[in-house]
Amino acid sequence: MSTRVLLADDHEMIREGLRSLLEKQADLEVVGEAEDGHAAVRLVQKLHPNVVVLDVAMPGLNGVEAARQITAKHPHVKIIALSMHEDRRYVSEMLKAGASGYLLKGGAFRELVEAVRAVMKDRIYLTPAVARTVVDEYRRGAGEEAKSAFAVLTEREREVLQLLAEGKSAKEIAGVLALSVKTVGTHREHIMEKLNLRSLAELTKYAIREGLTSL
Question: Which strands sit side by side in the sheet containing 125-126, from one edge to the other?
Answer without folding.
Answer: 28-34, 3-8, 51-55, 78-83, 101-104, 125-126
